[in-house]
Amino acid sequence: MTRPDLLLGPAEREQVAAFLEPRVESSGAGDASDGAVREALRFLNRDVMGAGVTACGPKGDLMRVAETIATAAWCDMSAAFSLWCHRMVLEYLSSAPPGSPLEASTLPDVLGTRLLGSTALAGAMARHVGGAPLSVEWRPQGDAIVLNGRVSWASNLFPPDFVMVTAAANADDGRELIVALAGDTPGVCIEPYPRLLALQATGSSSVLLRDVRLPASWVIAEDFASFITRVRPTFLLLQSSFCWGLAARALAEARTCLRGVNEVFCADVEALEGRSAELAGEIRAGLSRPAVDTPIRPLVQLRLDCAHLATAAVALEAKATGGRGYVTTSPTARRLREAAFLPVQAPTEGQLRWELSRSA
Ligand SMILES: Cc1cc2nc3c(=O)[nH]c(=O)nc-3n(C[C@H](O)[C@H](O)[C@H](O)COP(=O)(O)OP(=O)(O)OC[C@H]3O[C@@H](n4cnc5c(N)ncnc54)[C@H](O)[C@@H]3O)c2cc1C
């Protein structure tokens, strides 16, 4: 029988909560702090997923990665989102040519959390699905390429110890490449970190690329379409996992408030719990299929459904919790702000619904 949840087992859940929850206040509303994210990612990668062993490497146990992301989101969406970014970069780097510096040196550094992974592929996904132009262009220069442009958003931007993966189009013929950039590459300029509604700790900002010279060996993929097709199922399933973890926590909190007048919310909580169990089953089923065999439309629908579940769950938690949840420093208020991120994270709700409206 499919398990009705996506969380780690009880002992590991406690271990994650004991680590993340005392730190959550500062990460939800405070300053972007490299130390907090790096510490959280090290803990989740090494102590929870055991990233030092090959089983949890880029080609490792994605179910365990999804459970860890969901359990992190149960406690703190910043940690869950940063972990998603980091793990996606591991996925991308697993396409790097064998023996290349990316495979031999960068990938082990990301696996060991010595470098943080920053995925800047929102534009690439929009290009793949709807043909939107890329905002970064490249030109050949000897045996290197030179990049210019702007990435509107990326996260885990804590220089110099990060590696960002993005897409660029050839300035003349539009040919797309997927490239990796080290955080200390000359010409990589991070704009000031904006104040955010939530997820302040994720180090999110825009990145300007000014004449960034990259050796050809930093190109991860030249076949843009097959790269995106390969990574998209994991991209969507792990995003669904952080949506699911946030929803599950909000529902658990709502359930603790169902006394007296609040008994009127019992049926609502039960209905969303039922939906949550169904969606956890769908995420598990998606993760247990090899990526090549995964039809994409159900995963697009699943990502949308999980975001909707989270939005509905935090709204219900707020109603059941009442006035104390309206205090900005309360966990309920933080979850409301965290859930507001889900429809604007690419694929945005608009992009998901647009894609669903155009595919059979
Ligand atoms: C906190 C946060 C963290 C994010 N982290 C990531 C990440 O790690 N990886 C990732 O791929 N995406 C990330 N994103 C981007 C996200 O995935 C979506 O792509 C984005 O939110 C969609 O924004 P949009 O609807 O404005 O569309 P877009 O297509 O991005 O932009 C629409 C228009 O608004 C302009 N615009 C958008 N953002 C800015 C900005 N910051 N400054 C100036 N102009 C802007 C664009 O130039 C464009 O003209 C993050 C977004 C946020 C809010």
Concise overview:
The protein has 360 residues and is of the alpha+beta class. It is 51% helix and 15% strand.
Tell me what you see in this structure.
This protein is an alpha+beta fold and about 350 residues long. It is built from 12 helices and 8 strands. Strands 1, 2, 3, 4, 5, 6, 7 and 8 form an 8-stranded mixed β-sheet that branches. Strand 2 and strand 3 (about 145-155) form a beta hairpin. Helix 8 (about 225-255) packs parallel to helix 10. The longest helix is centred in the middle third of the chain and has 32 residues, at about 225-255. It is globular and about 75 Å long. Bound molecules: flavin-adenine dinucleotide (FAD). The site of flavin-adenine dinucleotide has 17 residues, from strand 1 and strand 3.
List the helices and strands and how they pair.
Layout: H1 10-20, H2 24-29, H3 34-48, H4 62-75, H5 77-93, H6 101-111, E1 116-120, H7 122-130, E2 136-141, E3 144-154, E4 162-170, E5 176-182, E6 188-190, E7 205-215, E8 219-221, H8 224-255, H9 266-287, H10 296-321, H11 331-339, H12 349-358
Parallel strand pairs: 1-4, 2-4
Antiparallel strand pairs: 2-3, 3-7, 4-5, 5-8, 6-7
The structure holds flavin-adenine dinucleotide.
Residues 85, 119-122, 152-155, 196, 199, 204, 206, 344-346, 348 line the site of flavin-adenine dinucleotide (FAD).
